[in-house]
Design goal:
Elements: E1 2-8, E2 13-19, E3 24-28, H1 34-44, E4 47-52, H2 58-61, H3 64-71, E5 74-78, H4 88-91, H5 93-96, E6 109-111, E7 115-119, E8 122-128, E9 137-141, E10 146-150, E11 153-154, E12 157-158, H6 168-177, E13 187-190, E14 196-197, H7 198-204
Parallel strand pairs: 3-4, 4-5, 5-6, 10-13
Antiparallel strand pairs: 1-2, 2-3, 7-8, 8-9, 9-10, 11-12, 13-14
Helix pairs in contact: 1-3
Length: about 210
């Protein structure tokens, strides 16, 4: 098993590929540049199995249909943002991209709450981590000690909470009650910027200093 960070789209949002030895992959948050991502997958002989969305802001979903249609795979999204994919005002593209609104077809599988999700040889623990957006989730893959946290937790920072549905205290509570309960050596694969670890953020993240 291994993983790769691939910045994509207008904000260079981190897309992640989690791969097994057979080069089957789960794709997290393909934010844009769909044709280039598909070309890379073909070049490397990688076979996608599914797309997992940490949330449905425009910069995390831009390449969803390009990848889904090319490979015939399913898209997973939390129930609280099921309407966001097809609504440019909710996913934010109407405000941030102007005439380049992003409209994506509905998700194939709806995440209704926390629990375990199995896709092929991959098994994840799902944590609801709203606050940046109401349907934000984090996917913990224990075999590699990595959590795909979307825009909940960053190296030295946390997700912005001034967008529709954001809630600063809710985000802090979710980080404290769920993400910081993971082993300290857990890699945090964030939606933007470099990766970090739970222990590093516990020690030095100024937003978490009260915990």
């Amino acid at each position: 098993m291994n993983w790769k960070q691939v910045p994509l789209g207008p904000l260079q949002t981190n897309c992640y590929l989690l791969m097994n030895q057979q080069k089957e992959a789960v794709i997290f948050d393909p934010g844009g540049d769909g044709p280039q991502l598909n070309a890379y997958l073909k070049k490397e002989g990688i076979t996608p199995l599914a797309i997992l969305l940490t949330h449905a802001h425009f910069d995390h979903i831009g390449a969803v249909d390009d990848v889904r249609n090319e490979w015939g795979i399913k898209v997973y999204l939390h129930k609280n943002e099921t309407e966001w994919l097809g609504d440019s005002t909710k996913n934010g593209s109407a405000f941030f991209l102007g005439n380049q609104e992003i409209i994506i077809n509905d998700a194939d599988h709806i995440i209704h709450g926390e629990g375990t999700l199995s896709i092929g040889s991959f098994e994840f623990k799902i944590y609801e981590t709203p606050g940046h957006s109401p349907g934000s989730v984090s996917f913990y893959f224990e075999p590699l000690g990595i959590v795909f946290s979307g825009d909940a937790l960053f190296a030295g920072s946390i997700g912005r909470t001034d967008l529709p549905g954001g809630n600063h205290q809710q985000l802090l509570d979710c980080i404290h009650d769920k993400l910081l309960e993971l082993p300290e050596d857990t890699i945090v694969a964030s939606g933007h910027g470099p990766t970090t670890t739970i222990g590093q953020e516990m020690d030095s993240n100024p937003f978490l200093s009260g915990f």
